[in-house]
Amino acid sequence: MLMTMTSAWIVLPAVLLAGGLIGASGIGGVLLVPVLTQLGAVPLPQAIAAASLGFALPALVALGPLHREPTLAARCVPLLAGALAGAAAGALLLRWLPAGLLMSGVTALVLFAGWRGLMAASNPAPASAAPLGTTALLALGALVGLGSALTGTGGPVLVIPLLMLLRQPLAFAVVAAQAIQLPVALASSTVHAIEGRLDLSLALLCGVLMLAGSIAGQRAAALLDVRQMQRMVSLLLLAVGAWFAWLLLA
């Protein structure tokens, strides 16, 4: 494993926290790569590879809501199919394309979506747009998969802002964000393993911790109503965007 014992005492609780945020809002996985690189001194390519596989386990948390709501599950299928193809392409392009420019765009998107979501949560009756069609969901999934594989962000940090900006229901956005981690993890980690970047023990440790945190986070989120959930997700987006901006400028 790439981490030292000293750094593990700092990194592992942070990974558990990331899992809790995944279960509550779908977004916490965005913390994983910065935690591994900044606190654990894991090289960026290996951190992205470990995160890619690690996200597969907390993604299982989303299978419960999808199983209970077949209509919601059917809506997620084209999104997940697009993400599978996009993530494979992104993992293949990782060695050639720098992530800095893409992360700048992700930062701007996250900040804008957080601001817009916070404003909408203050309105008396935030309206939702018509559901996206199959083609739009496929394209959106491919875009999210590509960007997620290039940055190691798992999927939620891209799909939630995009679905919020497209005025899709928050319940769908959160479940889709949790579920999209599975195809992104499977496609991108397969490519990373083939190219020799995957530390399996680190990936599995991160996955187990995030799974445990995700279960706890989902139970905590069940106590919130839709308006509270939207406000929490929006504030988390703003915090993540501010952190990304700090990392880009550092």
Mind explaining what this structure looks like?
- With 250 residues, the chain is an all-alpha fold.
- It has one domain (5-249).
- It has 13 helices and no strands.
- The chain has helices at residues 5-25, 32-39, 44-54, 56-59, 63-68, 70-93, 99-121, 134-151, 156-165, 170-179, 181-194, 200-221, 226-249.
- The longest helix is centred in the first third of the chain and has 24 residues, at 70-93.
Give the structure's gist in a few sentences.
The chain has 250 residues and is mostly helical. The protein contains 13 helices and no strands.
Mean pLDDT: 81
Instruction: Please give the share of residues in helix.
Output: over 70%
C-alpha termini separation: 27 Å
Return Rg in Å. Answer: 17 Å
How many beta-strand elements? 0
Largest sheet properties: none
Report low-confidence residues grouped into runs of 5 or more: none
Number of domains: 1
Question: Structural class, from secondary structure content?
Answer: mainly alpha
Oligomer: single chain
Pattern of helices and strands: HHHHHHHHHHHHH
